Amino acid sequence: MNYSGVSAMLKIAAVGLMLASLPASAETVEVAPGVQLTKRSYNAPVNEQPFFGFVVKDAAQREADEKFVAALVKATGSREKAFDEATTRAWRAVIAGKASEAVVRFNQAWLISPEPSALYHGMAVVALMRFNDPVFAEELFNIARKQPKPLKMLNADYGRFLLIAKRPADAQKALEQAVVDNPDFGDAWSNLAQARLQNGDRAAACVAADEAGKRRPSANAMKDLGALRSSAACP
Do the beta carbons of residue 152 and residue 182 sit within 8 Å? Predict the structure, then answer.
């Protein structure tokens, strides 16, 4: 699966949004062993909200979930393959701009296996796309960075998010790791160039811009690189 369109989705979803502090009294819920999340609900059907809107399910609903998971595991051959199937469909929906479908698929993945990083990474992206909630998105990104089996695009997406949130110092840290995780991703290099420039390092920004240009960045990134090279007076 090619996730190169996700950074563009983050830009569309997060432009103009400011990160705010969560209230001290916010209720948290355990969504996986040792993983606590702030309880959130939105104006949408329960199955189109992250983690089903944290509703408490009755016995019949829990039984239906168990039957669904058992059927998918049987059809795919293992719980791991079932999780991969659900998340692959979710990311396809993200890239197609179908945020509500993506949430449904990530919820299914959560029922199958609540621990992997990819689940929280995906939920962070759809929290922005579907609900314009950068606070919850950052909480999810932070969990994704601690959980097992992260996608190689995680730090690239998180760094892009931080860059849009006007936190270039934090963004640079994430993006420096992103180009180690996935050195052939041109857009990560482009975003790193932007972060370095905003942090006052013109020479390093030009180096990252050159690296981006070698790696087939997206059309949007190419436009950004042109403006950056001019601003940084790159040779």
Answer: yes
Per-residue pLDDT tens digits for 43-60: 999 999 999 999 999 999
pTM over 0.85: yes
Residue type, 118: A
Taking the C-alpha atoms of residue 162 and residue 19, their distance in angstroms, rounded to an integer, is 10
Domain that holds residue 61: 1-151
Report the distance separating Cα 41 and Cα 91, nearest Å: 22
**Mean per-residue pLDDT of the chain:** 91
Q: Residues 171, 129: one domain?
A: no
Count of domains for the chain: 2
Alpha helix positions (H), 77-216? 79-95, 99-112, 117-131, 134-144, 154-164, 168-181, 186-198, 202-213
